[in-house]
Write a structure and sequence with these properties.
By secondary structure, the protein is an alpha/beta fold. The chain contains 12 helices and 12 strands. The chain has a 7-stranded parallel β-sheet, sandwiched between helices. The chain has a 5-stranded mixed β-sheet with strand order 1-4-3-5-2.
Length: 282
């Protein structure tokens, strides 16, 4: 299996049908969600996509600046021979994507069928699992950082409410360093549906809140109190409003202690601290 190299001459590249999905990348990044596509940018992220263990992701094509072909030779050799790799000069790539792109490597990915939230929590593990629930996170950098932290500390999955932005948005994937392609995620119909999924699976929901009655580092020293002891889901909201009141009312509220000078942490930072506390040996 070897990806099919397709050199494109500069004078024909912009008008070619093959590169149409890459043209005006900023616009396509958003439009791609409607047809099940996403864009991976940079060598590290493209390598993660090419080796993704989640079978719903597949490389449809690549767009590679001609000087970067050899750097991706091993990836190209492992891809199926029906995957085209379009090779262009740097000036053509800049024209195609609509801005100066210095990484020189892009891939168009297929999303495949979405995963079911119930399935992510139902998978068996050797012990109590750990997952994350995101509510109302609309900042792509924060979502990407949360996924990176989730991968670093071995979180099983990430549950998303309808308002949380797409983890497969190009910037989110890039910030996550490809972790959004590694950590399984599923979107719930609402915050209530997320809580009901957690409860039915026998997991315990912990809401991170600056006004939490319990300290997170103390709570995680004890076993989960969910009916099935399946594990814990750390729920996180926006750093301004935090989690909605109706979510806090149905969950165990925990806090990360800090000095009185500040009342909250950036959600990306908070997720790293929370995941570390929840996974470090006692």
């Amino acid at each position: 299996m070897v990806a099919r190299l397709v050199p494109l001459e500069s004078q024909h590249a912009l008008a070619s049908a093959e590169l149409n999905p890459y043209v005006r990348l900023r616009d396509r990044d958003l439009a791609g969600r409607a047809n099940g596509l996403f864009v991976a940018e940079g060598e590290v992220v493209v390598r993660v996509l090419a080796s993704a263990r989640q079978t719903q992701f597949r490389v449809r094509s690549l767009l590679v600046e001609q000087r970067r072909v050899e750097a991706l030779r091993d990836v190209l050799d492992d891809l199926a021979d029906d995957v085209p790799a379009y090779v262009v000069a740097q000036d053509v790539m800049n024209e195609v994507v609509g801005f100066a792109i210095h990484r020189g490597i892009l891939a168009l990915g297929e999303r495949g069928a979405p995963l079911a939230p119930e399935a992510l929590l139902a998978a068996t593990t050797a012990g109590p699992g750990l997952a994350i629930g995101l509510v109302g996170l609309t900042n792509h950098d924060n979502v990407g950082s949360v996924f990176r932290n989730a991968a670093a500390f071995g979180a099983r999955a990430v549950l998303l409410d309808p308002a949380t932005c797409d983890p497969l948005y190009r910037k989110s994937i890039r910030v996550s360093v490809g972790a959004a392609l590694v950590v399984p995620f599923a979107r719930c119909a609402s915050e209530e549906a997320m809580l009901e999924t957690i409860e039915r699976a026998g997991w315990e929901a912990l809401s991170l809140s600056a006004r939490g009655e319990e300290r997170l580092d103390e709570v995680v020293r004890t076993p989960p109190s969910g009916a099935g002891s399946g594990g814990r889901v750390l729920l996180m909201g926006t750093e301004g409003d935090g989690l909605p009141a109706h979510v806090l009312a149905r969950t165990r509220r925990v806090r990360i202690d800090m000095t009185p000078a500040l009342d909250s942490l950036n959600v990306a930072v908070a997720s790293g601290i929370a995941l570390y506390e929840a996974t470090r040996p006692r």
